[in-house]
Amino acid sequence: MKHRQNSGFPRHFLWGAATASHQVEGGNHNQWTVWELENAKTKAAQAEYQLHDYPTWDKVKAEAKTPDNYVSGDLGDHYHRYKEDFEYLEKMNMNAYRFSIEWSRVEPEEGVWNSEAIAHYKEYLSELHRRNIEPVVTLLHFTLPVWFAEKGGFEKRSNIAYFVRYADKIMTELGNSVRFIITINEPEVYGFESYYLQNWPPNKASLYKMWRVSANQATAHRKAAKTLHEINRRYKVGIAKNTTYFFAGDNAWLSQLSATIFQYFQDDYFIKKYIRHCDFLGVNYYQSQRVFGYRIFNSEKADYSDVDWMLAPSDIEYALERLGSKYKKPLMITENGLADAEDAYREWWIKETIIGMQKALKKNVDLIGYFHWSLLDNFEWAYGKWPRFGLVAIDYKTGKRTLRPSAVWFGRVLKKLRS
Ligand code: BGC
To answer: CB under 6 Å to ligand 1: residues?
Structure first.
């Protein structure tokens, strides 16, 4: 067993926070920004119909009904203010940070590499190293260069080569300053939102396309992982997989069976395509869902986040145990957190999560890190800017950053846990 501290966490455990390029950088041009400009007015007009039964509707309706909410624009301008933002990692006594490279900046046109963007990410990494912060780099977090999307994105098998070429180019440039690489963030969520729910670009409802995209992304991961290992044998390559913990709300056989089936199609159906080509598995855990019969029901007893997700932080223990024993690879919690503008639940959430992780570690789950989502308030995809996931709050009008009280508390806890 690895050397453990009194807290039960391994000595070199990664404690950090996560972001993704499009959600914090500002000033991007990719398939999402095109989509945002085309759809902002419609989204604002539909907000009441879609969100009126959310617990926070009264508080967010002014923002949610405004087209500007659905346009990422400059956001908090993290692209230029990253040094200031990294100071918060240090203030919270963190030793790790997960972020994504924006492919559309690095390769704005097919085969044209933007040396300024590459130099930016090099400098970004050096800044983390200067602060002794271990980077975890994501290569694809939902956004695509416009030219790649216009060629059909991951719908076409022949396009996989473009992604592998980008992975090769950027990691050859960034080189040995990185150990952990995530090729693709939440492949299943991307397919489901874009090709089934039609919440995201390219907004095509096609089960066939969803299936193709899923198959092509798995191949893209496999090929990219091979290429990355050729660049450096010591790279640890993985994916970040979202997991909702499904549980039966009663003892009825149908509820038990449905929970198992939901869990399978959400997790295993995807993970089994990737796991042989992963050195570790990233886990994004946000919520549990209660199944009665063959349907999911909200629980009246539970609390809900601002985006109406059931808050069950301690269930992370079961999610970790299940994935750890089934796949036998090191696990890294690559995202975990909640939309909580008033910071009412965050401290409690983190406390319960730490206890859940300690319990999983006691049962010998090989857990190597925890990344809170998110370091900063950010652009929450189809919801736009109103959901507030950040440990650091951002006033989008002035750009002013403020550490939320729960984050101040988390920083004190980390000091103790890491001592
Ligand atoms: C995604 C993030 C997103 C978060 C909260 C994850 O599914 O990777 O981009 O902001 O969940 O919804």
So the answer is: 20, 23, 185-186, 189, 242, 284, 335, 373, 380
Q: Which two tokens stand for residue 287?
A: 């919520």
Instruction: Tell me how far apart the alpha carbons of residues 102 and 72 are, in angstroms, rounded to a whole number.
Output: 14
Binned at pLDDT 50, 70 and 90, residue 19 comes out as very high
- Asked if residue 82 lies in contact with residue 94, where contact means CB atoms within 8 angstroms, the answer is no
Atom of ligand 1 nearest to the CA of 378: 10
Q: What are the tens digits of pLDDT across the range 150-207?
A: 999 999 999 999 999 999 999 999 988 999 999 999 999 999 999 999 999 999 999 9
Q: What are phi and psi of 99, to 5 degrees?
A: -145, 170
Radius of gyration of the chain (CA): 20
* Number of the ligand 1 atom closest to the C-alpha atom of 374: 10
Residue of 189, 283, 284 best suited for mutating to test ligand 1, as the one with most atoms within 8 Å of CB: 284
The protein residue with its alpha carbon nearest to ligand 1, atom 12, reads 380
Between the CA of 150 and the centroid of ligand 1 the distance, in Å, is 24
